[in-house]
Automatic annotation (TrEMBL):
<dbReference type="InterPro" id="IPR036291">
    <property type="entry name" value="NAD(P)-bd_dom_sf"/>
</dbReference>
<dbReference type="Pfam" id="PF13460">
    <property type="entry name" value="NAD_binding_10"/>
</dbReference>
<dbReference type="InterPro" id="IPR051606">
    <property type="entry name" value="Polyketide_Oxido-like"/>
</dbReference>
<dbReference type="InterPro" id="IPR016040">
    <property type="entry name" value="NAD(P)-bd_dom"/>
</dbReference>
<protein>
    <submittedName>
        <fullName>SDR family oxidoreductase</fullName>
    </submittedName>
</protein>
<feature type="domain" description="NAD(P)-binding">
    <location>
        <begin position="8"/>
        <end position="188"/>
    </location>
</feature>
Length: 211
């Protein structure tokens, strides 16, 4: 049995992950949320914990006994949330972490799209970049995901770039990012201590199609 803790389990990418893992009899899910009423459905293989990620003591209790932690978090304090996650996982002795951040945190998005992306969310990216620094400075077995602009297409296709490579594409489906997360959960040695850009192939352009 693989025990998976999902932080921010009512997030839109996390919903795909929870639904997919609900079909696996060898997975036990713990869904950590601040407001349990926002969870549309709790699968049979899941339990719910109501807590704030910034409450490191409560988070540590939730992490104990887990095999993998997947963080689907956001906010202008995401660097502080990352610090709390690292502290809790270190204390609980759980090393494997999947953490979703954002594209552009390394200045890795080239050309006109990179300039547009920086104009749109450049200020917000600073705190996401700090979160990445926290994770990369830790001794955790982390995978950072940096999705392109997200849409709700029924499209599981994706391609990845690694830190140090120019980002590709402009969009990716939440479903595709969720599928990648499940693939890592199913094979935890994949993408160890890596930061991955994630996009839908053949979506290069000056900005996302829906903007």
């Amino acid at each position: 049995m693989t025990n998976v803790l999902i932080l921010g389990a009512n997030g839109r990418i996390a919903r795909f992950v929870v639904a997919s893992l609900s079909k696996q009899s060898d997975i036990s899910q713990t869904l950590l949320v601040r407001d349990a009423s926002k969870l549309a459905e709790v699968p049979d293989n899941a339990r719910v914990i109501t807590a704030d990620v910034l409450d490191t003591a409560a988070l540590t209790d939730a992490v104990r006994g887990q095999d993998i932690v997947y963080a689907n978090l956001t906010g202008d304090d995401i660097d502080e949330q990352a610090q709390s996650v690292v502290a809790a996982m270190d204390s609980a002795g759980v090393p494997r972490l999947i953490f979703v951040l954002a594209l552009g945190i390394y200045g890795e998005v080239p050309g006109a799209f990179g300039e547009w992306n920086d104009r749109m969310i450049g200020t917000e990216l600073r705190v996401f970049a700090k979160a990445a620094e926290v994770l990369e400075a830790s001794d955790l077995d982390y995978t950072i995901l940096r999705p392109a602009w997200l849409d709700d297409a029924e499209d599981a296709s994706y391609e990845i770039t690694v830190k140090g490579e120019p980002f590709k594409g402009t969009v990716v489906a939440r479903q595709a990012v969720g599928d990648l997360i499940v693939e890592i959960i199913d094979e935890p040695t994949r993408h160890s201590r890596a930061s991955l850009g994630v996009d839908r192939p053949h979506t290069d352009g000056d900005k996302p199609y829906f903007m």
